[in-house]
């Protein structure tokens, strides 16, 4: 099986999209954590794919970024957001 055909886990897709969205909004991990009511360490672990995040906390982070949770789970989030 080639690398191109291997699908990233939903946790890693969320982690990558969370980091991209946070950077696009020009927010630090600390600022995002504060807005979401979470710790900076937790946000850092989520962005690195090290934390198995709950759906509730995913929602808190999406709300803090002003992005639909579904968008943070979409494999090509940036393309999807650019199209809307």
Automatic annotation (TrEMBL):
SMART domains the UniProt entry points to: HTH_XRE
Keyword DNA-binding in record: yes
Organism domain of life: Bacteria
Residue span, HTH cro/C1-type domain: 18-72
InterPro entries xref list: Cro/C1-type_HTH, Lambda_DNA-bd_dom_sf, TransReg_Diox_bact_type
Keywords: DNA-binding, Transcription, Transcription regulation
Positions of transmembrane segments: none
SUPFAM superfamilies registered for this protein in UniProt: lambda repressor-like DNA-binding domains
Pfam family, one: HTH_3
Coiled-coil intervals, chain numbering: none
Name assigned to this protein: Helix-turn-helix domain-containing protein
Protein's organism: Rhodanobacter umsongensis
């Amino acid at each position: 099986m080639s690398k191109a055909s291997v699908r990233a886990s939903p946790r890693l897709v969320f982690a990558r999209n969370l980091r991209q969205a946070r950077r696009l909004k020009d927010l630090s991990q600390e600022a995002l954590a504060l807005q979401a009511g979470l710790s900076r360490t937790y946000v850092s672990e989520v962005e690195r794919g090290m934390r198995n995040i709950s759906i509730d906390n995913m929602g808190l982070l999406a709300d803090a970024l002003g992005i639909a949770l579904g968008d943070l789970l979409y494999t090509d989030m940036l393309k999807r957001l650019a199209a809307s």
